[in-house]
Amino acid sequence: MIIKKIRAKNFRNISECEIDFSPGVNLLLGKNAQGKTNIIESIYIFSRGRSFRAREDSDLIKFGEEGFNIGIEYEDFKGEGSLEYSLYGRERQRKKNGYKIKRVTEMIGSFKAVLFYPDDLGLVKDGPDKRREFLNIAASQCYGSYMKYYSDYKKALENRNALLKLINKGFFVDRAEIESWSESLSEYASFIYLIRKEYLKKLEVYSKKIIIDISGGREELFISLDSDILIEDEERNIIKEEYKRILRSSIDREIAAGVTLFGPHRDDVKLILNGKEARLFASQGQQRSIVLSLKLGEGEVIKELCGEYPVFLLDDVLSELDNDRRRYVLEGSKNKQFIISSCSGDECKGFTDREIDVEGGRFVIKR
Ligand code: ATP
Ligand code: MG
User: What's the confidence (pLDDT) of residue 103?
Assistant: First the structure.
């Protein structure tokens, strides 16, 4: 799929802009603090449902303005489409092909993009929440129902935690109420668990191959879900019963802690490189290779499950990669749309189809 055009008004430092993209490699070229990441951020909102770096949407409104609106035109194998998103005061509006849509999930399912930005380089070493977030975003692009299960799970989790906290503080709570939340939690957890397992199995196939390519066959990567489920079974009811059993048997510990200690909200993604846990033993270069393989792999899984590549958004990461890895990424850009941001452009010389100068929130196509 490709993005053909973006329009933005009063979004971050952009007063008004309209940019036409090439279906190939697009380079956003500009000095620091000119608006390169801002435009990538605006595009990615259509894929993720919200910004990858703002605390809240109101942070996206240009300082001193009332609101913002952004819109994209894209093309996929089904044809052309458009998405719009705006926020004025408390009024939020999402539109698809000119018609209002209620749910953010309708937007997420329509436009698919993979973002790779400098913060991702911490995916291997940082805490599990970062890998969980990666997994949630990646899975929600491929499995339409995932986000719904996940948000239902989180709501049930909040309710169960509130009850645990009350008991912890000495209040009376009917245990049947806790049981009922454990039931819902286990139901959603079983769906989330199975989707995550399946997703990572697919991702492993591609990421493994990418690591082999980058390292000349020296590195071997295994990816798996690190969860509370220790039985090997793919029957959803059995997984659900297992979650129920775990919650039942750990209720005293959970009351003492005042929170739910087990479930998908505590999962991690296990990355094993050459037989050793990457989080603990991978070198800087190896970590970069793993992250690169996860990001490019994310794109391959979307291609496998949805029938076409997503748009690749590379925000300032090429300069963080060494020559070999950078070449690998750029040579893989055939049949894919890339939107790359850079301060110098040196790192992708000879590979770009369109160059866009970025200065003070304005965008001018140079080539
Ligand atoms: P770098 O190369 O350093 O990453 P960049 O071109 O990616 O730079 P952006 O992150 O896009 O820079 O930010 C451009 C400018 O937008 C920054 O000066 C930032 O302070 C400004 N900015 C951020 N939020 C808003 C806002 N809500 N209103 C106005 N300006 C904003
Ligand atoms: Mg930037």
Answer: 85
Q: Name the percent of the chain lying above pLDDT 90.
A: 93
Determine the topology of domain 1-112+310-367 in CATH.
Answer: Rossmann fold (3.40.50)
Q: Kindly report, residue by residue over 51-63, the tens digit of the pLDDT.
A: 999 999 999 999 9
Which residue intervals of 11-87 are DSSP H helices?
Answer: 36-48
Q: Pick the residue whose CA is nearest to atom 25 on ligand 1.
A: 12
Global pTM value: 0.95
**Maximum separation of any 2 CA atoms in the chain, in Å:** 70
Q: Residue 21: which residues within 8 A CB-CB, separation 6 or more?
A: 2, 3, 4, 5, 6, 337, 339, 354
120 lines ligand 1 (CB under 6 A): no
The residue nearest atom 30 of ligand 1, judged by CA position, is 13
CB 173 less than 6 A from any atom of ligand 1: no
- According to CATH, what is the number of the domain 119-307? 1.20.1050.90
- Nearest residue CA, atom 9 of ligand 1? 35
pLDDT tens-digit readout, 16-31? 999 999 999 999 999 9
Closest CA to 230 of 213, 210, 217, 245: 245
Q: What is the mean pLDDT of the chain?
A: 96
Cβ of residue 10 lying under 6 Å from some atom of ligand 1? no
pLDDT at 92: 94
For the chain, give every domain's residue range: 1-112+310-367, 119-307
Q: Is 38 in the pocket of ligand 1 (CB under 6 A)?
A: yes
With a cut of 90, say whether residue 220 has pLDDT above it: yes
Question: Is residue 63 lining ligand 1, measured as CB closer than 6 Å?
Answer: yes
The span from the CA of 118 to the CA of 139, in Å, is: 21
| Candidate from 27, 32, 37 with most ligand 1 atoms within 8 A of CB, to mutate | 37
Q: How far apart are CA 227 and CA 327, in angstroms?
A: 36
List the residue whose alpha carbon is closest to atom 17 of ligand 1: 33
